[in-house]
Predict the structure.
Amino acid sequence: MSSEVKQILIYHGSDMVVEVPKLIDQVRGLDFGSGFYTTTNLDQAKKFASIVSGRNSTYSPVVNLYTIDLDTIYSSLNVLEFLEADEEWLDYVQENRLKKYSGPKYDLVIGAVANDKVYDTLRLYERGTLTKEQTLQSLKIRELFNQYVFKTAEATQKLTFEGSEKVIS
């Protein structure tokens, strides 16, 4: 009997081909803090590639493709996974965006992306305009995409580069 490998395809939007992911400390606060951000949603990766290439004035959006073995990930890394945008997720995202997270360290964090519309809701929460309950209720009606954030070199080594493709606008 052969053991079945549970591999998934994930994407990283950039303005360059990234065969070997590197951890770069982020200047601005991101959802899950510093790390190598990926998603299983190709459209989300294309959008991010366009944003990054515009921000860096390269105008060369690229989506990098990787596979990961889920069994290996969960058995060998310290993983934090948010199954929904709940109170725990909201607290984690807010602390990371404010660069105030001081909890446990993880190799990989998986959960919803706080995209532009979600970010607007989070800003209202941060300003005190929305309560935590109102914020969570608002998030429940939004379509949230996922992100896999590789936070350590050990975690990025679990990625297998499969290729890249230019994003055509």
User: Anything to note?
Assistant: The first strand starts at residue 7 and ends at 14. The two ends are 47 Å apart (CA to CA). The chain has a mean pLDDT of 89. Residues 42-55 form the longest helix (14 residues).
